[in-house]
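Intended use. Records like the one below are meant for learning the mapping from a protein sequence to its folded structure. Do not use them to infer anything beyond what is encoded.
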Amino acid sequence: MITAVDTNVLLDIFLDDSEFSEKSSDMLRKCIREGKVIACDIVWAETAANFKSEDEFRRIMDSLEIEFSPLKENAAFRAGHLWKSYRKETPGKSKIIADFLIASHAKLQAERLLSRDRGFYRGYFKDLVVLNPAD
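Structure written out for the chain above:
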């Protein structure tokens, strides 16, 4: 089982979020036991920004066995088209394309997504399996 992880889950853990840290940690451990956990380049960059050095960041990601998994061309294409539809259907809304890239990566390069952003993903990625630690 391949699980893509979203930035919000990793930041829950690394920033010791008072509400979600324990739940996110438990769910991440479960996903690791069940197979491989990957993070796309967007998640990698957003998470890395919270570490003082690349070495520190790489050590923690290696210790958690989270693998870097760059976005493939077909995932980027799908994300772009869904984002365009979103912008047409919801003028004034502010979801950025990064959210669409993360979901497309999970859908096309993994079997599920570990994220607390379930409502958005359910709306635009109906067939994406989303594991929400907050549930």
